[in-house]
Design goal:
By secondary structure, this protein is mainly alpha-helical. It is built from 8 helices and 2 strands. The chain has helices at 7-35, 51-75, 79-105, 129-147, 156-180, 185-189, 198-208, 210-231; strands at 114-118, 124-127. The longest helix is centred in the first third of the chain and has 29 residues, at 7-35. The radius of gyration is 20 Å and the shape is globular. The termini are far apart.
Amino acid sequence: MTGHLPERTRWAIVMAFAIAMGWVEAASVFYIRALVDRIEPYQADPLPMNGALGNVELWREAATLVMIATLGGLAGRTWRRRAGYAALAFGAWDIFYYVFLRLISGWPRTLMDWDILFLLPLPWWGPVLAPVSIALVMILWGTLATQSGDGTADARWAWALAGVGIGLALAVFMIDTWRALRDGRDAILQVLPTMFNWPLFWVALLLMASPALHQVAFLRTKKSVFRLPCCWRLP
């Protein structure tokens, strides 16, 4: 990406690209689900894909992650901003994927509809609200990381908490397929979760939001420090 572009312009370009990616993703998923008659994924035999189609879908997901990482690398001029733009793109892509899928197919009907969120390394299950919530956090942090200047600091403890949160969220999403793992591939493909661990997920989300919350607190403190001389009074 051209080096002289201001960060706000870069943000807008990344958002436009991510929204367009959301449409491509929604269209691709619609084609696949129509092909296997699973527009609504939460039903008996939710993943009726033969070996070839299943492998193609796995590689498509991997390619999508490469595209997002590449976009971040091209848009950012520092490692922090590259990560920020990648997070921004992922969050916007995920949200607009559901927006466009709703427009194309009428699904999801509500944010509480169950969805197969990802297939790597095992199928992830969760209500649509869960990935959308994570996507909003990613957009928040990505925006802060790319637009707040280079003088901000990321605390290691915040990222350590975020790492724990990511682990907990993955456990919540994959717990049912993990339990079916010992029964083989066919059992994994037949999994239909009956409950979602919302309390643990909200804890995980709060932990994942630690870098963004730390960034907000840092900027508020920095702003207060700059304003402090205006409030001084002589005795």
